[in-house]
Amino acid sequence: MTDTTDLSKRHIRSYVLRQGRVSTAQQRAIDTMLPRFGIHYVAQPLNLDQAFGRAAPKILEIGFGMGDSTATIAQAHPENDYLALEVHSPGVGNLLKLIDAQQLDNIRIIQHDAVEVLRDMIGDNTLDGAHIFFPDPWHKARHNKRRLIQSPFIAQLVHKLKPGGYIHLATDWQDYAEQMLAVLAAEPLLQNTADAYAPRPAYRPLTKFEQRGLKLGHGVWDLLFRRKTP
């Protein structure tokens, strides 16, 4: 008989830890601000209201990059709390700089693998939404298995959402957009808010990279699904 307990703990990582240069300012932000705005990964459920010091809608941000969009969204929506996940230190340092510059108090950061955070720290029926913007497309066919948006991950994520909670994905790779649409459409607990791809919601800011791509005629695809209510 196969022991599935250990197998359930292993997964193919959707990222590679690169030796990105951390600037002096980013390192200073990590040293001085991460103790306040950071949450250590531990394999036990996280009390989200306690982590933010209030009861408010909770949105999960997976893979926030350099944090510009996360900070913009959080500043525009002070009524929400944003739990932001990223593995790369330059991005963590940059988001902490933005938190300081904009005096934001509705962001908390976990610098750890999103799959493990979701599995071990986020309780079922606790999230009001989840954002995954421009995840690594792993565009070579032999690397597609590393893509984050696959059925087992979405099946896990959907249970963390409250009924009516949403998943918002965005990508600028058409074949990944098609895979995302197929995966989300196949999840029985989710319902698409559009016929296929959704218009970009006003709360998601255009990145500089995205603006350049759009001027060159490149496509960007947003998907917005909600967890079905009983």
From TrEMBL:
The keyword Acyltransferase does not apply. It is an enzyme of class 2 (transferase). Its EC number is 2.1.1.33. It catalyses: guanosine(46) in tRNA + S-adenosyl-L-methionine = N(7)-methylguanosine(46) in tRNA + S-adenosyl-L-homocysteine. Substrate binds at residues 140, 172, 207-210. Keywords: Methyltransferase, S-adenosyl-L-methionine, Transferase, tRNA processing. Residues 142-147 are annotated as: Interaction with RNA. Pathway: tRNA modification; N(7)-methylguanine-tRNA biosynthesis. S-adenosyl-L-methionine binds at residues 61, 86, 113, 136. It holds the Pfam family Methyltransf_4. The keyword Transferase applies. InterPro entries: SAM-dependent_MTases_sf (IPR029063), tRNA_(Gua-N-7)_MeTrfase_Trmb (IPR003358), tRNA_methyltr_TrmB_bact (IPR055361). One of its GO terms (cellular component) is tRNA methyltransferase complex. GO terms for molecular function: tRNA (guanine(46)-N7)-methyltransferase activity. Belongs to the class I-like SAM-binding methyltransferase superfamily. TrmB family. Catalyzes the formation of N(7)-methylguanine at position 46 (m7G46) in tRNA. This is tRNA (guanine-N(7)-)-methyltransferase. It comes from Sideroxyarcus emersonii.
